[in-house]
């Protein structure tokens, strides 16, 4: 064990997580380090991040579930389609409440080792290009700041379509006062965290 692989802030994060989450996070942490001694851990956006020549995977705990998010999931070979690459606020394995919700240890190690190799080769995830006829979507600084503090909401928002993002931004920007905007922002971030579009109530 190379102690520089570990970060005491991750210990603190796990310790303050809900009871159900501690065993899940500890298990995932051990599997990640077992998969590769090259990986080091840190805290990014308030959550445990495991890196090697760039981010590999991030863990997060919430009130009722945990999430694991591979940064370059779309580049990982997954013939059994175990990963969920669609919009999912909890990451590629959905909402995790116990270790049994996870794929097998062998599968996890394979994905992690693939992710290490991807970063070793310097491979990049192809950028999503909006259709030419659509104007560039400008995300307000206040929304960017809030999303950086909320991994769950950021993951969902990043995977929203152009129109889904625009609906939320327009709603926030149309607020007549700062107080109204703050109220909308708080409510909107809750909806986004739950994977809901702006007009989810009417669908």
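Sequence proposed for the structure above (203 residues):
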């Amino acid at each position: 064990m190379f102690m520089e692989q570990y970060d005491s802030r991750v210990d603190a994060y796990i310790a303050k997580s809900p009871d159900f989450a501690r065993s899940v996070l500890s298990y995932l942490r051990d599997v990640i380090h077992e998969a590769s001694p090259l990986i080091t851990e840190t805290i990014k956006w308030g959550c445990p991040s495991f890196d090697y020549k760039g981010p590999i995977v991030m863990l997060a705990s919430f009130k009722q579930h945990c999430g694991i998010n591979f940064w370059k999931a779309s580049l990982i070979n997954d013939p059994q389609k175990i990963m969920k690459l669609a919009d999912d606020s909890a990451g590629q394995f959905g909402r995790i409440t116990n270790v049994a919700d996870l794929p097998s240890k062998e599968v996890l190690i394979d994905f992690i080792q693939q992710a290490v190799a991807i970063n070793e080769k310097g491979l990049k995830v192809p950028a999503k290009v909006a259709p030419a006829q659509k104007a560039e979507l400008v995300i307000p600084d206040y929304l960017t700041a809030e999303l950086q503090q909320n991994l769950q909401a950021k993951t969902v928002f990043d995977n929203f379509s152009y129109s889904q993002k625009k609906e939320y931004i327009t709603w926030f920007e149309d607020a007549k006062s700062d107080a109204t905007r703050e109220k909308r922002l708080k409510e909107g971030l809750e909806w986004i965290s739950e994977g809901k579009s702006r007009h989810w109530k009417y669908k």
